[in-house]
Every structure is written in C-alpha cells, then in structure tokens.
C-alpha cells in the first residue's frame, strides 16, 4: 500500500484531533476552532478538508466501521469456515480489543448521549452495519437463529470491551468467553 497523499494525511490529522477533542471535552464541545487548535492548523484548513461538522462526523464514523470491518475481514480470511466458537474467541481476543480501543471515540459518543437525532442515527447505522456483518458470518456458518445470536454477540462485545477497560482480569475474560460459547451453543440447538 502506498503512502497517503497530503490531502489524506491532513484529513487523518483533522480526524485524529476530532477524536481527541471528543474524548477530552465531549462531542458537544468539539468546535471546529478547538479541532483546528488540536490539529495545529488554522480553522479555514478544517473547512477546506471537511464541508462541515456533519461531514467530519461521517468520516469519523466511517473510520470506526472500517477498523472493525478490516478486523472481521482478516478473521474471515484466516478461517476456512468461521464458526460461532471461533468468532466468539476472536471478538474476545486481545487483537479485537485493540481495535475497540482504537475506536474508543465511538463508545465515548454512545456514553455521552444527548445527541441530535441525526447523530444518534449515524451511530446506530455503524452498530447495525457491524451487527449485519456478524449475522452474515453466522448465517454463512449455518448457525440457527443468526439474528438472535448476532445480537447477543454485539451486546457481549460492548460489555466485554467495557469490562476490559474497567480492569477486570484476563482470567475473568477467558472464563466469560467459555461461558458465552456454552450459552450460544445451547441457544442454537434445535
């Protein structure tokens, strides 16, 4: 893969600053002035690369989804026939948790709440896209009730990431992985 061009680098620099401001001050206080200061550039440069806050948020959420999608694509590529157990082990792995830490801004946006309907809808769309990807994998693996199990996995992923962030021990995470595999297999038996 080649080096990103200057325009892409500037957009990344702005999005990195946007993420830091959201994490530090919250989405509601992420003004373009603050973002420009954080990105070490002048405010008109922000407008040059992003038409407005809406476009910047879209780009940020696309970045979040792209990180998850790339991780899931790598998982699928490394498994001949992904099954529920391997998928659970993957979403509970340190590798996947690193992706979630990169996407900490998404969890911060959810936790901050009080968003306009359009912002909430955009976050919901990211969640649904990720959920649909997981359900598709479960369907492909021939699992019974892939929608129900996919939803359970999404809830577990979110809870697991928060538990890891709060410092629950790795042994507890491994135990939860085994328990989830057992519960999921019981829920999918005809």
UniProtKB/TrEMBL annotation:
Gene3D superfamilies: Tetracycline Repressor, domain 2 (1.10.357.10)
Segments of the chain annotated as binding DNA: 31-50
Keywords: DNA-binding
SUPFAM superfamilies: Homeodomain-like
Origin: domain of life: Bacteria
Domain HTH tetR-type: residue ranges: 8-68
PANTHER family named in the record: ACREF/ENVCD OPERON REPRESSOR-RELATED, ACREF_ENVCD OPERON REPRESSOR-RELATED
Protein name: HTH tetR-type domain-containing protein
Biological classification of the source: Bacteria, Pseudomonadati, Pseudomonadota, Gammaproteobacteria, Oceanospirillales
């Amino acid at each position: 893969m080649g080096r990103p061009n200057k325009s892409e680098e500037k957009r990344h620099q702005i999005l990195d600053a946007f993420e830091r401001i959201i994490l530090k001050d919250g989405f509601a206080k992420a003004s373009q002035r603050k973002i420009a200061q954080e990105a070490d550039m002048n405010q008109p440069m922000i407008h040059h690369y992003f038409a407005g806050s809406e476009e910047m948020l879209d780009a940020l959420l696309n970045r979040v989804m792209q990180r998850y999608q790339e991780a899931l694509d790598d998982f699928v590529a490394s498994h001949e026939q992904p099954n529920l157990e391997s998928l659970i082990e993957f979403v509970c792995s340190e590798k996947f948790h690193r992706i979630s830490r990169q996407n900490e801004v998404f969890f911060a946006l959810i936790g901050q709440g009080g968003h306009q309907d359009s912002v909430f809808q955009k976050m919901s769309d990211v969640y649904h896209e990720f959920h649909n990807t997981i359900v598709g994998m479960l369907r492909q693996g021939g699992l019974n009730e892939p929608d129900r199990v996919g939803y359970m996995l999404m809830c577990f992923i979110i809870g697991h990431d928060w538990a890891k962030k709060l410092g629950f021990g790795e042994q507890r995470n491994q135990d939860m992985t085994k328990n989830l595999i057992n519960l999921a297999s019981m829920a999918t038996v005809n």
